[in-house]
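Q: I'm building a small set of examples for a reading group on sequence design. Run inverse folding on the following structure and report the sequence directly after it, with nothing in between.
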């Protein structure tokens, strides 16, 4: 099969996790693959994009440029090199644009697709002092000119009764955008708790929202959660908290509901600020590698959005999220639209 070399890069062997050379190649089936070779475990090939011309177009929009840390560059020592020395090492070229603080690995669900394998093997709960050290590290080394958003995550962060105290601490330290990454179960059932989060300084709920029917939730979350999700959004609306809907997208489970999720989001504007589609990650509690037809790539998402909104949003309305932000162009996409008086989204 004829191939076109698009880029050389590095990756990890999926067996031994050693760093190995990799290539991004376009093939005659008009698909883009990552091909990598391990001297011990052989070659691996994974679909990452559909459409060679589309890949090249997005590559031309790549404005990524290295940017040194704003503070001390030696928070983490270099021992094995990237990606093994996780932290703010001298080779770390980007300042933080988004800070995730994981405060627990406990959860009130047992999702079959959990990439974090929550509730397994051990219990992890940080203290308020731990959170303070984390946030002060971010402020010291990453925030000389601007303070990034902070998101409290897990596990499920709302299993912590002291989460409002952590939110208040972040607010006191100068973080202005404070998100709660949640499955929505507690904030749907306990409005007083949600209100305490808002009063402490939280202003955005990053809500797991996989679809508009219970069959989707039974497959992805192991429970019928449609009404829980609806109530969580309503409670946020009542209290004036913003919401971002976050669907985990699986080809044969909820891919057909992309348009319905956008329709739901429209109904709840201005409470719902956006939808963050996330194709499933094949690790954690769902490590099974799919066949290429089952993978959801960025072009797949854009095509689904256009078709399932009947052209209200078109694929060419979206651009790489990197534009003006210095990120790799094939990582994600973005679109900003307004809701018109006629009830349609205008990009």
């Amino acid at each position: 099969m004829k191939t076109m070399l698009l880029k050389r890069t590095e990756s990890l062997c999926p067996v031994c996790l050693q760093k190995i050379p990799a290539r991004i190649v376009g093939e005659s089936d008009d698909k883009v693959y990552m091909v990598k070779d391990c001297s011990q475990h052989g070659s691996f090939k994974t679909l990452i994009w559909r459409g060679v011309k589309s890949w090249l177009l997005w590559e031309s929009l790549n404005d990524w440029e290295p940017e040194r840390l704003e503070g001390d560059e030696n928070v983490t020592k270099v021992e094995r090199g990237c990606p093994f020395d996780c932290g703010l090492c001298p080779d770390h070229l980007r300042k933080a644009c988004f800070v995730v603080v994981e405060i627990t690995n406990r959860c009130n669900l047992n999702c079959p697709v959990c990439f974090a394998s929550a509730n397994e093997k051990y219990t992890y709960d940080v203290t308020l002092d731990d959170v303070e050290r984390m946030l002060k590290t971010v402020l010291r080394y990453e925030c000389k000119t601007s303070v990034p958003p902070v998101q409290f995550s897990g596990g499920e962060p709302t299993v912590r009764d002291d989460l409002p105290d952590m939110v208040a601490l972040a607010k006191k330290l100068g973080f202005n955008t404070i998100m709660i990454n949640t499955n929505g179960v507690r904030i749907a059932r306990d409005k007083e708790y949600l209100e305490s989060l808002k009063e402490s300084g939280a202003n955005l709920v990053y809500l797991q929202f996989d679809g508009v029917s219970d069959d989707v939730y039974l497959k992805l979350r192991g429970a019928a959660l449609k009404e829980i999700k609806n109530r969580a959004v309503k409670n946020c609306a009542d209290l004036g908290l913003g919401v971002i809907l976050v669907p985990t997208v699986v080809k044969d489970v909820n891919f057909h509901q992309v348009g319905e999720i956008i329709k739901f989001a429209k109904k709840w504007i201005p409470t719902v600020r956006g939808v963050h589609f996330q194709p499933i990650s094949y690790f954690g509690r769902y490590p099974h590698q799919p066949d290429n037809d089952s993978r959801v790539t960025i072009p797949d998402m854009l095509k689904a959005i256009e078709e399932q909104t009947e052209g209200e949003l078109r694929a060419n309305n979206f651009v790489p999220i990197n534009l003006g932000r210095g990120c790799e162009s094939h990582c994600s996409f973005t679109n900003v639209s307004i809701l018109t008086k006629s009830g349609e989204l205008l990009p």
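The chain has a mean pLDDT of 90.
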